[in-house]
């Protein structure tokens, strides 16, 4: 069904960003516009989600050039869910930024760039054209480069070098893969590619192209041998920026992997085995990395890497149950990872450090806030019935069914290490008495006026409430993720929706 | 022509990767630029090089006829070049900034210390 309104979440971000540019030096106005814009976009995303839930696939052919010749935007349930999650995470990060980002950084254009980042993300979720996916990825990475270096402090700049280099390299890989794909099929439309690539006899070449795509997206989503840029750069920007990075940037890589490797390249036995092995390695290395780090945000960065393993493992097993588990995990992960970095920002505001050895006594000073952060942390671990628990059941079930014992072992070890590091964080930062330090640290949080404090805490409560809903209302999310998994597995409706009734064969 | 371009692409990729493996930040940047150009050339070659007329529909015709060049690779390369210009400009400014901050061109002097922000 053709519906031009699906592009609205992208356009609204663009207009908000342009509007923000007119108020370059006026911090208060920028804060209000950004939060209002994000509220509006969240409303639009909910509208889009309801529409796609009712009617399945919505398409928009840019300039009325019919697919496969024009540029197609497709909204299915998967992309509208991702847009909805990006809207939720964006709203939370934007509210947090009003207090959490310094005046100084806002005057350097933090909010417009923030909206450009979300614009790129929403575009990447909606596009049905592989080259456009590349363009949206570039929009995302150039915005993320600016956000990462904004403020220009030394550790930030040093972390950014690895981040910039690796992301540029990933873009080149992606572009190379697109070039080979165009040479093979003469098409760029993803639905059309799915049909044409299935007919190519030279399967070796097709698989190599698939591997190049995996390499490009793998760098972006931080899988096993390619993740090292992430822990060395994600702990340097301010918490609100790290939250949106941790919540959404690696996940857009996973989204692209899920799209490309279910629609265009259906994994054969070799690719599937490779995915599960890399997933297991990602799980273990991420978990052990988190185990040795004593800085909260570095530890969280390794936990991002670790949990990417669950997502990739689900894709590797490629059964209905595994894909449903992956989608469920993705939904849970975006909310929880965003919230986790916001919570780390709160801890930093209170105690002036993110080093676990210097933290302590938070529970005695802030009992209610500690309980809130406990909800965040234990949702991530997946203590039943909190949100991280349910997708793991799916993934365990799928790995029993497909006999991926090493993946299952890695998942169990990673889950236990996550539990251990979170319990250690809880014991160190919240239960232990504050260690005596030479210089008395000032509590920035207590000195703030009440409205600033509530602006910092409100997004954490908002996201914690959503992750509680994901945990306690798991049946609803299960129905949603099973529907998305069915869509991913059976691509015929997607292709029919994009290419229209007459499927052109050359 | 194709053979020449294919060799050129190989050389661009190889030198690009070689330059990226150096320790100097300027060489890293040059490596990235070479790799980007290699990828653009690859699109050009794989799009199929045809000797023929440009893809413009004449006044008296309704559709393209005969041998004509494929316009899509050119459009793709144009987009990719514009994007890589932007990214390279950013990377150059970033590396300049790093040079000002740490006063060396050697990647080995980069270390992200465990400081809190």
Please describe what this structure looks like.
- The complex is a heterodimer of chains A (506) and B (117).
- Helix content of chain A is 77%, strand content 2%.
- With 506 residues, chain A is an all-alpha fold.
- The mean pLDDT of chain A is 87.
- The radius of gyration of chain B is 20 Å and the shape is elongated.
- The model of chain B has no long low-confidence stretch (mean pLDDT 84).
- Chain B is mostly helical.
- Chain B has helices spanning 2-20, 25-46, 71-102.
- Chain B has three helices and no strands.
- The interface between A and B is large, with 47 and 41 residues.
Q: What's this, in brief?
A:
The complex is a heterodimer of chains A (506) and B (117). In chain A, 77% of the residues lie in helices and 2% in strands.
Write a concise keyword list for the protein shown above.
heterodimer, A: 506 residues, mainly alpha, two-stranded antiparallel sheet, 77% helix, B: 117 residues, 3 helices
Q: Secondary-structure blueprint of this entry?
A:
The complex is a heterodimer of chains A (about 500) and B (about 120).
Chain A: H1 8-21, H2 27-55, E1 58-61, E2 72-75, H3 77-100, H4 103-107, H5 110-126, H6 130-149, H7 154-185, H8 190-198, H9 203-221, H10 229-233, H11 239-263, H12 269-292, H13 296-317, H14 320-351, H15 362-365, H16 367-381, H17 389-402, H18 405-431, H19 444-447, H20 450-472, H21 474-489, H22 492-499
Helix pairs in contact in A: 1-2, 1-5, 2-3, 3-5, 3-11, 3-14, 3-20, 5-6, 5-11, 6-7, 6-11, 7-9, 8-22, 9-11, 11-13, 11-14, 12-13, 12-18, 13-14, 13-17, 13-18, 14-16, 14-17, 14-20, 14-21, 16-18, 16-20, 17-18, 20-21
Chain B: H1 2-20, H2 25-46, H3 71-102
Helix pairs in contact in B: 1-2, 2-3
